[in-house]
Structure prediction request, 342 residues.
Amino acid sequence: MGILGLFLLLPILMALWVSLTSWDGQGSPFTGDVGFVGLDNYSRLFLQDGLVRRDFMTSLRNNAWYVLLVVPLQTVFALALALLLNQRLRGRGFFRTAFYFPSVTSSVAISLVFLFLFTGSGTVNALLGLVGVDGPTWFADPRGTVHLLGDALGLWDAGSPPSWLAGTTVGGLSLWEWVAGPSVALCAIIALVVWTTTGTFMLMFLAALQDLPHDVTEAALVDGTNRWQRFRHVVLPQLRPTLFLVLTLGLIGTWQVFDQVYVMSQGNPAKTTLTPAFLSYLYSFRQNEWGLGAAMAFVLFVIIIVLTALQRFVMRDRDDVRERRELRAQRRAGRRTQGAAR
Prediction:
């Protein structure tokens, strides 16, 4: 308990204190020379007009799109690979190792490889060229994919957005900016992260699949169920704890994305790959506004806690909750009966 307090709780409290000050990184933040600003750093993030709020809201928007794409994609791919490699296939040991290999490779090294792959004359654009597609300049293209998709479907003109979207502002950004979707540059980072994290989650699903009781699956097979019905009604419910673990780890990891952004884009182009973690680093280490950087980190911490709690509520076992409610109701009824008997 003392170790947890020393290495976990104490640093959190120290960082919380820094977020309430104007510490510039010089000397100790716990002396009387450091100004106490209260909630002013948090006010600059949410309430005060200016570059700080605009940058922070832009980073939240980018990270939200990033989470919305990365978490489902890596979960679905990992589960599909685990189901495939749980079959009796020739060379499945090799394929398990091959798919897991990116997870144990340095993220910096893989980021550099992806930089070469996604350059204007790189392999990805060369492959797109084979099917007649003129690939973009990936890491220099700030266009939002939702804007591009709507333009292609004729819903709007990306160069002349609808006035009600462009004219309505929330948190310093227009609705048109909020719904821009991940930029072309961010899509390349998303592809990288999905590729590197799928192997780790595949192993978790694979371990869970190998631990499932075979008699339940065989009973479903005897009942005449097809492959999809067995997966939907027999296998998937038993994978609920592993699915919750994968989604929780994915959610936490995606909201903390930093190294790929640092190596591949530095938040560019046009700040469309900026994330809260990287923005906190910029304000702390490069602009010496440590109080502001710590405030961003705490907002990020709250976002992760709230979303994890929401996910836990959504994925709760309803049968178990119902049984516990019935048990509590029976105990209360028993106590009332005993009280009446006295």
Q: What stands out?
A: Residues 51-85 form the longest helix (35 residues). The domain at 67-144+182-292 is CATH 1.10.3720.10 (MetI-like fold).
